[in-house]
Amino acid sequence: MQTATDDLARLAPRLLAAWRALRGGPPRRGPRPPPDRLAPEELTEVARGVERLSTGLTRDRALAGARYLDDPRLLGAYLLFYWPTSYLQARGVFSELPRAPGAVLDLGSGPAPVALAALHAGAAAAIAADRSPRALAAARALAAELRLPLTTHPWDPTRPGALAQAAGGKTFDAVTFGHVLNELFSGEGAAERRAALLEEAAALLRPGGSLVVIEPALRDTSRALLEVRDLLVARGFAVRAPCLFRGPCPARLRESDWCHAERPIEPPPMVAELARAAGLRREAVKMSYLVLAPRGEPWRAPPAGRVFRVVSEPLPSKGRLRYMACGPEGRLGLALQEKHVTDANRAFEGLLRGDVVELSEVEPRGDGLRLGPETRVTVVAKAGEPLPGV
Ligand SMILES: C[S@@+](CC[C@H](N)C(=O)[O-])C[C@H]1O[C@@H](n2cnc3c(N)ncnc32)[C@H](O)[C@@H]1O
């Protein structure tokens, strides 16, 4: 079966060609570089851009909200390093939707990894909208190379009427925000303004459509997203993924908690090489995300039984294995002692962040539930799969 990773492996040479075009061709010195790998001189150049983006977007955050994609070196580094990650993240979220979106509006698209992921996931057409003309030109060039039906539109939500202009009177099966919400409206009142923007975007959804928000898996950006989630849930929006809990997000109760997804990946060699050169890690895709239904559509009934989504990595300690989990009854710890492992509950040992499980015969213990030899553990959906019955 064709996977998103396979699709990305085939995309890598196109991204590289787009980057070389942006840069004005391959290096002048030395032999002609291969179409799917960076020459050493190119690698050093791109790794420098990746380091600047990484510092500016995830560490000191000095680039958040700045016009960094108008700088060809940073746009180039984005295309070769962050684009593949955003693409895989978006494919991961689309795979959780009950059906592939038909028409997509990708806001804050940059060079459109999310829109192109939607098109590869089966979307019939996509509009990529951003304020960076250079990023939109790169998006158009990539889509033309791949013969994908993508159009672009300038969009800056700080300008009145921007969303209606980008939508051009159309409605959509998905409106997406890939790593852009955290760059909009910083400071006091930011959560309110972000929620208002999402509400405005939700009004463009067709029945059954989805608002898809992907954010970095950083504590602050994730908690900011959870705050926006709570504002929208309080206004009657239903969450399609990842939440099974319908009240205010319990991860917001403690400042040290946040919520993110993690999917192991095998990055294309070019991305792995860049990660090494820039001193970053890329063996997993991490993100915070939210899929919302159009206003007024009800929450979908959770799968039967006591179900939970695993929201932590495995937490082994002194003869027992623990996870944090979140389900219709809230966020709590689940623990199983090694000596109580049986065939019926052995699946607990292999759970990954994002998996949804059904548990029978569990007992309240401390701040969570204790599984015993009589507990049955059934994996209802693996991370990244849609829930059954939706
Ligand atoms: C981190 S990039 C994300 C690009 C792509 N969506 C992705 O998921 O990889 C953030 C994007 O937000 C855009 N952006 C930031 N502030 C913006 C604003 N005020 N108006 C429009 N776009 C903005 C930037 O131009 C950039 O393309």
UniProtKB/TrEMBL annotation:
Domain of life: Bacteria
This protein's GO CC annotations: small ribosomal subunit
GO BP, sorted A to Z: translation
Alphabetic keyword roster: Iron, Iron-sulfur, Metal-binding, Transit peptide
Pfam families named in the record: Rsm22
GO terms for MF: iron-sulfur cluster binding; metal ion binding; methyltransferase activity; structural constituent of ribosome
Protein name according to UniProt: Methyltransferase type 12
Naturally occurring in which organism (per UniProt): Anaeromyxobacter diazotrophicus
